[in-house]
Amino acid sequence: MDATETIYEGEAGSVHSSADVSVYLPDSLSMPVPKALPQAVSRSLETPEGAVRLATDPEAARSHPIRATLLAVLFERLPAFRFRHSDASATSPETARVPVQVAAAGDRPLACYLAVQGFSDAQIAAVMGLDESTVATAIDEIHEQAK
Predict the structure, then answer these.
(1) Which value, to the nearest 10 degrees, does the dihedral of the CA atoms of residues 64, 67, 71, 73 take?
(2) What is the DSSP string of 6-51?
(3) Taking the alpha carbons of 128, 119, 53, 12 in that order, is the dihedral positive or negative?
(4) Buried b / exposed e across 40-77, counting CB within 10 Å, b at 16+?
C-alpha cells in the first residue's frame, strides 16, 4: 500500500489520499479509520460500507484528491445521500444520474457532483446552460474553502 496522507477532515468524515487513490471515510464507519483505511485504498479488498474510493482516472478532468475533497464537502453540506460508483460511469453529464438531494441544492452542488464524476468544466457548463468560467470558479471556490 502506498503511503497515504489526510488531505481533508470535516465534521462528518475525512479524505485520505495516496498516489493512486483517494478515499472518503465517513465518521459513521463501523470500524476505526486505522483499520478501514488499508481496506479502502486496496485494489483487491472490498471498500468498507459508506466509504467512497476514487482512483486515478486519466479521462477525469480533475485529480482524484480534488474529486474526493469535493465529494466530502457535498456530504458535509447537503442532506444525506448515497454516492453510487455505478452512477459515476456515465459518459456525459447529460446521462449522469444525480441524487435528488444534490439536484435540489442548486447549481454549485450540482456542478461539484458532476466534477466528482470526472466531467470537465466545459461539459458541465454545456449541460447546465452556464458559462464555463462560472462553473470553474464555483468548483474552485468550494475546493479552496475545503483546504
Answers:
(1) 110
(2) EEEE-SSEEEEE-SSEEEEEETT-SS-HHHHHHHHH-SSSPPPTT-
(3) negative
(4) bbeeeeebbebbbbbeeeeebbbebbbbbbbbbbbbee
Could you tell me whether strands 52-55 and 13-17 are parallel, antiparallel, or unpaired per DSSP bridges?
unpaired
In total, the chain counts a number of residues equal to 147
pTM here?
0.91
**35 in Cβ contact with 72 (< 8 Å):** no
C-alpha 109: how far from chain center: 11
In terms of Cα–Cα distance, which of 90, 112, 85 is closest to 101? 112
Task: Please name the residue that has the C-alpha cell 485494489.
Answer: 43
Q: Which residue has the cell 489520499?
A: 17
- pLDDT profile of the chain (147 residues), mean per 10: 85 93 93 88 86 91 96 94 76 88 95 95 96 96 90
pLDDT tens digit sequence for 60-102: 999 999 999 999 999 999 999 988 777 666 788 888 889 999 9
pLDDT of 1: 47
